[in-house]
Amino acid sequence: MMAQRLFGCGTALCTPFTADGSVDEVALRALVEWQVGAGVHMVVPCGSTGEAVTLTPVEHRRVVEITVEQVNGRVPVIAGAGSNDTQRAIATSIEMKAIGATHLLHVTPMYNKPPQRAMLAHFRAIADGCDLPIVIYNVPGRTAINLEARSCLELAVDPRFVAVKEASGNLAQITEIIRERPDHFAVLSGDDSLTLSVMAHGGDGVISVVSNAVPALMTALCDAMGRGDLLEARRLDARLAPVIHAAFVESNPIPIKAMLAMMGHLRDQLRLPLVSLLETHHPLVRAALVQAGALAS
User: Fold this and answer.
1) What CATH number is attached to the domain comprising 25?
2) N or C: which end of the chain has fewer CB within 10 A?
3) Is residue 233 part of a domain?
4) Is residue 255 one of the residues assigned to a domain?
5) Would you call 165 a catalytic residue per the annotation?
């Protein structure tokens, strides 16, 4: 029997840090518990929003381990395991499986700039090396390469690939994948602002940045679209719009960490080369949270 296709809101979890810059395990557990309690459909540790590129291998393992423990089987845990070194990606994948992740998130290889045929070889080698289901992550704005619709669909026929997090911002490309994908393959928006549009075209949800701060709202939007209630989904999308705008006034995860700090969930602590949000943006961010009902005025 085929597993149910991934659906809904997956939170691309922030990684909380203590004042001395180490992983804040207490805050991480609390963040994961809050997300699951708010109804998110899946959690995604150690992606871009989790500052995975600045975590040591030991820290990466620990963040996913804590997430798996705290989730305790309630929702899928899609662990970031990507690398622009295929062998490293395989090794990380094997480790993520060993500590209980249910899925892997694998980004297109950044910096190397492989052609389409090389990206296909990269993803297939990872699938050969570890038997967890894979979510492909296409984010050209960070990697400088785009996994074209034809390439994504070529991977999608292989049941080891179960979804794509599509953050190209190219709706024509995304809708081509939606139209031609096999039944088992989910299409998840990688851009919060396009969630409604992607789902209206038949997509399955979002791996979200803003759901770190407003998990119930983004989950409700996905649920509304899942039951065909476009009017309610549009209302929720309008309510989310100021938060989405504020969450990207500087590079992610700078603004979302500022939001979570304002809400008392973690310290506004990032690792270089990222720094805290400019003070001049704080009024905008705070006002967006108040408007969404996430923070008292």
Assistant:
1) 3.20.20.70
2) N
3) no
4) no
5) yes
pLDDT of residue 1: 40
Encode pLDDT of 249-267 as tens digits. Answer: 999 999 999 999 999 999 9
**pTM, to two decimals:** 0.97
Nearest to 29 by CA among 73, 79, 70, 74: 70
97, 111, 113, 165: the catalytic one is 165
Q: Is 234 exposed, middle or buried (0-12, 13-18, 19+ CB in 10 A)?
A: middle
- pLDDT, averaged across the chain: 97
d(CA 74, CA 52): 23
Total of domains in the chain? 1
- Strands (E) located in 139-269: 161-166, 186-189, 205-208
* Residue-number span of the structural domain to which 29 is assigned: 8-227
Query: End-to-end alpha-carbon separation of the chain, Å?
Result: 50
Catalytic residue among 97, 111, 113, 137: 137
Q: What confidence category does residue 2 fall into, taking pLDDT thresholds of 50, 70 and 90?
A: low
Backbone torsions φ then ψ of 192, nearest 5 degrees: -55, -40
Each residue of 200-225: pLDDT tens digit?
999 999 999 999 999 999 999 999 99
